[in-house]
Amino acid sequence: MYNDRPETDEIEIDLLKLGQILLRKAGAIIAVTLLAAAAAFAISFFLITPQYTSTAMMYVNNSNISVGGSFSISSSELTAAQSLVDTYVVILKSRTTLEDIIARESLEYDYEELYDMIESGPVNSTEIFDINVTSPDPYEAERIANTIAQVLPERIASIVDGSDVRIVDYAVVPSERTSPSFTLNTVIGALVGFIIAAAVVILRYLFDDQIHEEGYLAQTYPDVPLLAVVPDMLAEDGGGDSYYSRGPASAGRPGRERGRERMKEQEKEGAGHGQER
Questions:
Q1: Is 52-169 a CATH 3.30.565.10 domain?
Q2: Between 95 and 263, whose confidence is greater?
Q3: Residue 190: in which H helix or E strand, if any?
Q4: How far is the first Cα of the chain from the last one, in angstroms, to the nearest whole number?
Q5: Tens digits of per-residue pLDDT, 188-197?
Q6: Which pLDDT score, from 0 to 100, does residue 140 have?
Q7: Residues of each domain in the chain carrying CATH 3.30.70.1130
């Protein structure tokens, strides 16, 4: 057995060949992509509960800043007010505050569930912070947000001396859902479907250890002579087709012609031996 080629652990991947394989399977890849996009849209529309977010905004006033007549606010005073925002957010999401909200509104949530429904933080690094409440019921989200806005100033005043928190905007009933996004989920589903379909096609090509055409042998083992070609007896145009030359006609045409030539030579040699006998 010939073994003139050095053995290496490296695997050569022909990117052009991969592109041709993907192009050849483009119909199947597109079908899987569309199917995945449709599945993602259906899941988002029928199985995921819509969520609505209502927002209230509050202002943190530093006690050192006078709010009457003419005044000037230094950067240090603004920084102090901004630093209080983080403190107030912690007080907002404390167990005592949220349990007070649950009792006032007769909510069916426990502390952990209501905690997960609330997001709060500073607005653009200012001394204003927002209170975002997300719920499957838009009216419930608005009611909880406004209750927090009313309870929080009293709660903060009982903990932080000299605090002054004021309502900038009351929450309103949201008219549009915040999640799920049908467009985003559909695009993500299509992208996932395309990646999976393309990966399957590429992996099948890379792990395919069958020989499909004579040109592969000539290119991969140039120093090993090709001794014979097994004819494909199922070929539609009669004998002479190589077993590995099935598939596109253009890909197996050189193998067919050489197979026919070898068959003719073998027939001539057989006839010559018969005459000598």
A1: no
A2: 95
A3: helix 182-206
A4: 35
A5: 999 999 999 9
A6: 97
A7: 52-169
